Each structure stands twice: as structure tokens, then as C-alpha cells.
Amino acid sequence: METKMIWANLVSHDLQRTVRFYTDLGFKPNGKGNDELVSFLFGETNFVIHFFTPKRFENAIKSKSSDTKAGNEIIFSLSASSREAVDGWFEKVKQAGGEIFAQPENFDLGYTFGFADPDGHKFNFLYWPGM
């Protein structure tokens, strides 16, 4: 038995704010969405992240969603093609209203910075030459 695809489902407390944020970053919408869901495509492989209203998300998981302001659920890593591209994304994220939680910095394998979207979902952009 094989899995056909994997995607992520996250909570959005304001779908229109989520649409503005990810559109401002240049990510492509995945369909039109509705009053319970918006969806975006990430990277060359078009990884899908759905953003659901809290009610719809909690109905799906049959429990409460995480408080992303108080803790972490996951961090998504987005690959950049160069250090300059990481710096470009850093500026773009700031302009779009993302919360920077880790300034651009070198790490053992490359260069990175971290940010949270308006709902507190964590991402980092990184340039990793060996990847």
C-alpha cells in the first residue's frame, strides 16, 4: 500500500488575513477556498498547506487546536537558492507582516532566519549549499 500525497492542515483565525499574508509573499493559491478553508502551494513540488477556521479544524481533529503563541506545533523549512535569496525573503516576510523570531544567521550547514505567520505558525527560510 502506498500513500499518494502528503499535505499540511493548519488553523487560521482570520482567513482573509491569511490570504493577504501568503499572497503578499507570492505563494500561489490552491483553488478558490471557501468560508472554512484557504489553501496555498509551496515550493517546486507544490506542497499544499490548507488553512482552516478553528471550528472546522477542531471538528477534523476532534480536539482543541494548539496555541501557537504559547508553543510550537511544527516548523516548516523553505529552501532558498542562495544567501541573497534568504535575505530577500527576510525583507519580503517583514513587509508582509510576518513576525521574525530568528534573525538571519549562519549555522553549521548554511544560512537561515525564522518567522511566524499571523496565526503563529513557524517557518524558516534556509540556504543549505549541500541540499
From TrEMBL:
Species lineage: Bacteria, Pseudomonadati, Bacteroidota, Flavobacteriia, Flavobacteriales
Organism from which the protein derives: Flavobacterium humi
Pfam family, one: Glyoxalase
Domain VOC: 4-128
Protein name: Glyoxalase
Entry-linked PROSITE patterns: VOC
